[in-house]
Amino acid sequence: MQGANKVRNFTVIALAPTNLTLYAFNDDRKKDRLVLHGHERIAYINHEINSLVITNPTAIDAAVQNFITAHSLQKSYSIISLSGPSCPAQLIVHPQKDPSLDQLVAQEDRNNYYWNLNHLYSDDNDHLFHICALKKELILHYLLLAYRCSLNLITITNQQLPLFLLYQILYANAFRPSQLVADIQNNQNQIDRLFSREMIYRFTQLAIDKKLSKSEEIDLLAAIATVMHERNQ
Amino acid sequence: MIKKINFIQSLSPKNQEWYRKLIIILGISCAWLLIMIGAVHGTQLYYWLTLQKKSHALMQEITALQAAEQEYHEKLAIEKMLREQLAKLSKQRYHPKNPADLLATIKESMSNDQEIIAIAQKKKKIEITLNASSLNDAFAFLDHLKKTKKLSELQLISAHKKNETSKMAAVFQAIIV
Fold first, then answer.
1. B14 at the A interface (CB within 8 A)?
2. Is B39 near chain A, with CB under 8 Å?
3. Is residue A1 predicted with pLDDT exceeding 60?
């Protein structure tokens, strides 16, 4: 049982416009460090997923189930992490500290998407928000995927926001929102640029044989951020 | 502080583990409770079950005994009825006016080749018609009957034959004692 030996397993299913990446993490709370023991990237050769809509459920289900069986993740906690135009995320500056969604998003977009608004920083005149959304019908797609593959789905989230949370974890008590905003501005609003390659090894022990490419490392960092956030809940 | 984004509502791993522990603790507590109840009331339960078995067996015996008792009462009623009938018969049999004794006496007095044709009784007076082979034979019957002392004033009233080959019809008359 997971609770008894204090080891949790996490499966991260990262859906991007061009590929599906599956991660298997082992969280030993005694060591306070994640272990990546499974990694698989599947490119969409036959448009199995189109704009984050699962168009070939059989192939996707088979890929997920094979990964789960191969890494014994039947009792793991599953996280779906999304990126791409169907799951938009951006930083918005607004003069009000507590704006309504009507003030930030057009009526049409408001009806078609679920929105999440996160206040990051305030200076004298402006307030910085991170806003992200997900098409409503996609949620049902992923819930059905979880049902078909018997996943213990705990989160469907955006790929970008956990990186902010990772930044917060990284600095711990020394975290200052002003510093975050300054760092983001210095890196052309690209949150992933705030982290170096070594960050992966700081939070995670890689127990996989293959060498990861740079783009895979960035995605892995986002997956680590997602799991780090869930383990601290 | 930066908030977490989750597009679904779900239980966090911590909560799931807490609920799992709670279910396990409740399960163990219920099992322990059942064991304790079993331990405390086990002996009583055992006795109760044993008594139930005994009671069941006794109930079966009682049912059988009730059937036997009913049969006994039925037979007792039949016996009583038969005794009443027997008493009636005995009363009739040993009644002084019962002609059975007299008829038996008459039969004992007859020889093998004699036969009774008719017996007629009017109050105490009796008339016997007998087929006898001869007149002597008829008197022998008369003598035998006199010796029994059941009849008084016994006398031969008539004796006649229809023809030479036929038997003699003798008529006797007497008073019953």
1. yes
2. no
3. no
ipTM over 0.90: no
Task: Give the gap in angstroms from C-alpha A58 to the nearest C-alpha of chain B.
Answer: 23
Low-confidence residues of chain B: pLDDT under 70: 1
Closest-CA distance, B22 to chain A, in angstroms, reads 12
Calpha distance A88→A134 (Å, rounded): 7
Q: Are A23 and A80 in contact (CB under 8 A)?
A: no
Q: Which residues of A touch B7 (CB under 8 A)?
A: 114, 116, 134, 139, 156-157
Question: Could you give the CA distance from residue A2 to residue A6 in angstroms, rounded to a whole number?
Answer: 6
For residues A74-79, give the mean pLDDT.
92
Q: Do B16 and A77 touch (CB under 8 A)?
A: yes
Q: How much is the pLDDT for B66?
A: 96
CB of A92 less than 8 A from some CB of B: no
Question: Do B10 and A143 make contact, defined as CB atoms within 8 angstroms?
Answer: no
Residues of chain A contacting residue B21, judged by C-beta atoms under 8 Å apart:
3
The tokens of B160 are what? 């006649």
Question: How many Å apart are CA A83 and CA A18, to the nearest integer?
Answer: 10
Contact A108, A62 (CB under 8 A): no
Distance from CA of B15 to the nearest CA of A (A): 9
B2 interfaces chain A, CB cutoff of 8 Å: yes
Given CB atoms, is B11 within the 8 Å cutoff of chain A?
yes
Summarize pLDDT for B151-169 with one digit per residue, the tens: 888 888 988 888 877 888 9
For residue range A112-126, what is the model confidence (pLDDT) as tens digits? 888 888 888 888 788
Please give the pLDDT value at position A229: 80
Strand ranges in chain A using DSSP code E only, listed in sequence order? 7-15, 19-28, 33-43, 49-50, 53-54, 77-82, 89-94, 113-122, 127-135, 152-158, 204-206
- % of chain A residues with pLDDT over 90: 24
Q: What is the pLDDT of residue A3?
A: 44
H or E element: which one contains A126? Answer: none
